[in-house]
Design goal:
The protein has 421 residues and is α/β, with parallel strands linked by helices. The protein has 2 domains: 116 residues, Urease, subunit C, domain 1 (Roll), CATH 2.30.40.10; 293 residues, Metal-dependent hydrolases (TIM Barrel), CATH 3.20.20. Strands 1, 2, 3, 4, 5, 6, 7, 18, 19 and 20 form a 10-stranded mixed sheet that branches. Helix 3 links the parallel strand 9 and strand 10. The protein starts with a strand and ends with a strand.
Length: 421
């Protein structure tokens, strides 16, 4: 007799997270929505063996083994797990990013449907431990991929670098290194890779020449590189030409054209003003398309900043217009929330639709396939298909009818583990 776990789904206490990992899990009567199914595909069955999707097919095409644990989804939407391409979990592990706070944030992220995150530089020692615990299911958390940071020596006066390297030497930790023209990049990148980082983040105060040398050595060592869209010395197009997988923070793209006018920082401008002053970046967009560079926009954090500081309104007003234009120009855009630890990726997706003109399906692709690609995980995550990681979410309502339905998460599966509240 086929086994069912309906009681597990319905009877788990509301305030308690439960997890269960069967050897063979079968989801039936699913409606798949992903980058390869922009039009929903109903009546699908998905086999999950251990931590991978092993088979997908239309109902009735294959026999379900008697040994399987089966969940009938009743036609509900089945999506790839969401990927947050830009978080910060360990900037100050002895302070605001203490373990209790971080575990709470990670649990709430998973609850929202986020099954994988890319941490964009913090204390690599702490991140390595969190990543290990998340992978083994010892904490309730998305999978954690983290960055090793490289920046110019000037940047290491920033107090955040001191809190992220406490107990070590600032600028000389394998996961956070000061780079100069005399740096042994073969060793520096080998150390970054040895720290367990998934890639290198280029942050600030680097020249175009330094970026190109880092990229050349990183490619030799098969280490992905991403970074801020402007590094003071190197501009957006320099970074695109160098081959960064993704570039972060949409307002920084303005640096391709000009400095920031003081007039932008004054309150009282209307929509027509922002439409008029937003720079034309179509040349950069063409270059990004040609190099398959992904824009890590981080719109949500700029929306929050704009609500707190009138001088930061320009970041969001200009930023959302650039995102909208990049989207129309065919630039791949991923979904990252930066330092917001309250609303998570579903809110970034909503802003893509309401403020940047995305269709709901393209907002979903941004937070799944594109965000996975921004981390170099496009072969593992971001689609509901055989061979991919078993990272999935089940929704109670159709997200294509309204992107707000992305918040109506019924069930989360991460690495083949079923999580239910």
């Amino acid at each position: 007799m086929i086994k069912y776990i309906i009681s597990f789904l319905l009877l788990a206490p509301v305030a308690v997270w439960a997890q269960y990992k069967p050897g063979l899990l079968v989801l039936t009567n699913a409606t798949i929505i992903d980058a390869e199914h922009r039009v929903p595909l109903p009546r699908q069955t998905v086999f999950i063996c251990d931590d991978k999707i092993s088979l997908t097919f239309t109902a009735g095409e294959h026999t379900i083994p008697d040994s399987a644990i089966v969940i009938n989804l009743g036609g509900k939407s089945l999506l790839p797990g969401l990927v947050d391409s830009h978080v910060h979990m360990a900037t100050d592990p002895s302070g605001v990013d203490n373990r209790a706070h971080t575990l709470d944030v990670l649990k709430r992220m998973l609850c929202s449907g986020v099954t994988c995150v890319r941490d964009m530089a913090g204390d690599g020692r702490v991140l390595a431990g969190l990543a290990r615990d998340a992978r083994l299911g010892e904490i309730t958390s998305p999978e954690i991929c983290y960055s090793a940071l490289m920046a110019g020596t000037v940047f290491f006066s920033d107090p955040r670098t001191a809190t992220s390297t406490r107990g070590g030497i600032n600028g000389k930790m394998p996961y956070m290194q000061a780079i100069s023209d005399s740096t042994n990049l073969t060793l520096a990148i080998a150390e970054a890779k040895g720290s367990g980082a998934s890639g290198i983040k280029l942050y600030a105060n680097l020249t175009t020449g330094q970026v190109n040398r880092i990229m050349t050595e990183a490619q030799k060592q098969q280490m992905p590189v991403w970074g801020h869209a402007w590094l003071q010395g190197a501009g957006p197009s320099d970074l695109v030409r160098a081959g960064l997988i993704s570039i972060s923070h949409v307002p920084l793209l303005v640096r391709e054209k000009a400095q920031i006018p003081e007039a932008w920082k004054k309150a009282g401008h209307n929509a027509a003003y922002w439409d008029r002053v937003t720079p034309d970046l179509h040349g950069l967009f063409d270059l990004m398309r040609a190099h398959h560079t992904i824009l890590d926009a981080t719109l949500l954090t700029y929306k929050v900043w704009a609500s707190q500081d009138s001088a930061a309104i320009w970041d969001y007003e200009i930023g959302k217009r650039i995102v909208a234009r990049a989207y129309r120009a065919g630039v791949a855009i991923c979904a990252g929330t930066d330092d917001d630890q309250e609303k998570f990726v579903p809110e970034e997706m909503r802003l893509f639709v309401t403020d940047a003109g995305f269709s709901p399906i393209d907002a979903i692709i941004a937070a799944t396939q594109n965000s996975a690609a921004a981390i170099g995980l496009q072969g593992r995550k971001g689609l509901v298909k055989a061979g991919m990681d078993a990272d999935l979410i089940v929704l109670d309502a159709d997200p294509l009818a309204s992107i707000d339905n992305i918040t109506k998460v019924k069930l989360v599966i991460k690495g083949g583990r079923i999580y239910n509240r």
